[in-house]
Amino acid sequence: MKTALFVVFFVASASAVPTFIRTETLSPDEKIVGGNEIDIKKVPWQVSVQRYGRHDCGGSIISTEYVVTAAHCTNGINRNMMTIRFATSWNKKGKEVGIRSIHQHPYYNPQLIDYDISLLRVASPFRLSKNVAIIGLPSSTTSWPPGTSALVSGWGKITENGGSPDPEYLRSVTVQIVSQSTCKQKYGSWITSRMLCAGVDGAGKGTCQGDSGGPLVIDNVLAGIVSAAFGCGREGYPTIYSSVPALRDYIKKTTGI
Predict the structure, then answer these.
(1) Potential cystine with 64: which of 40, 49, 125, 149 (Cβ 3.0-4.6 Å)?
(2) How far is CA 166 from the centre of its chain?
(3) Catalytic annotation on 72?
(4) What is the spatial distance between Cα 212 and Cα 48, in angstroms, rounded to a whole number?
(5) What is the pLDDT of residues 185-231, one digit of tens each?
(6) Strands (E), 75-148
(7) Could you tell me if 66 and 84 are in contact, meaning their C-beta atoms sit under 8 angstroms apart?
(8) In Å, how far from its chain's centre is CA 20?
(9) What is the DSSP string of 203-257?
(10) Is there a catalytic annotation at residue 116?
């Protein structure tokens, strides 16, 4: 089954727009690279955005009625093809809710991955519990200095080309915020103010296909939305996230939050 997942690309030069090499066909048994299992009670805002009953992308609960994910997870997709699975560390268990409407950013650019955000209004409100919680949102002026630790979680690939011995359980990894100037040095001038980067020194830890749309969290606040990267946990190439502060006004306009 074809899925719209985490974008992986090669960088032709420091200033070039990336040339996309694939849209992965993935089973739901692939997850965060170099991370550890995490119980949903520690990240109760995490959801699995599913297509035809299979994990496709991550997402975050931002109110009792809305989930935020990446626009490339919803681009060209009908709401009736998707559901939200929540309140579980296992992406085939927990509870499920349909989607009433998809609000994809009108400026989303699939070639440049800019404005990579979609808001999903669920068919019935979430009932909050120890396994279901609302993630805090930053203000539009919030920023974090380079080196700030952040937690990213998801059910994506565990390696670029391999599977996982535990195919359904949620994983997470701690990464650090990377400066915008460093991010542009790595990826080129097409990096915009709607993007932020985070990664780790060395190789072997990061996000991968299937983690798209998932949360990057700092002090229980949603800082970023998993968007794209060069490979999965490759040394010197942090993950690119949609910047929630930069897109905060769109969230408020659409949801009232």
Answers:
(1) 125
(2) 21
(3) yes
(4) 10
(5) 989 999 999 999 998 875 556 677 678 999 999 999 999 999 988 76
(6) 82-86, 95-104, 118-122
(7) no
(8) 18
(9) SS-B--TT-TT-EEEETTEEEEEEEEESSSS-TT-PEEEEETTTTHHHHHHHH--
(10) yes
Distance CA 195, CA 124 (A): 31
CA nearest to 153, candidates 251, 224, 243, 234 = 224
If DSSP codes are grouped into helix, strand and coil, which group holds residue 199? strand
Exactly one of 72, 118, 164, 227 is catalytic; name it. 72
Catalytic residue among 48, 153, 212, 242: 212
Phi, psi at 41, each rounded to 5°: -65, -25
Using alpha carbons, select from 47, 66, 46, 58 the residue that is nearest to residue 253. Answer: 66
- How far apart CA 92 and CA 5 sit, in angstroms, is 18
Query: Is residue 12 packed enough to be buried (19+ CB in 10 Å), middle (13-18) or exposed (0-12)?
Result: exposed
> Span 103-125, mean pLDDT?
96
Whether 55 is a known active-site residue: answer: no
Picking from 230, 88, 213, 240, the residue whose alpha carbon sits closest to that of residue 156 is 213
Closest C-alpha to 238, from 216, 218, 222: 216
- For position 155, what pLDDT does the model report? 85
- For residue 187, what are its two tokens? 């990826």
Q: Report which of 107, 100, 45 is spatially closest to residue 75, judged by C-alpha positions.
A: 107
C-alpha torsion sign, points 103, 46, 205, 211? negative
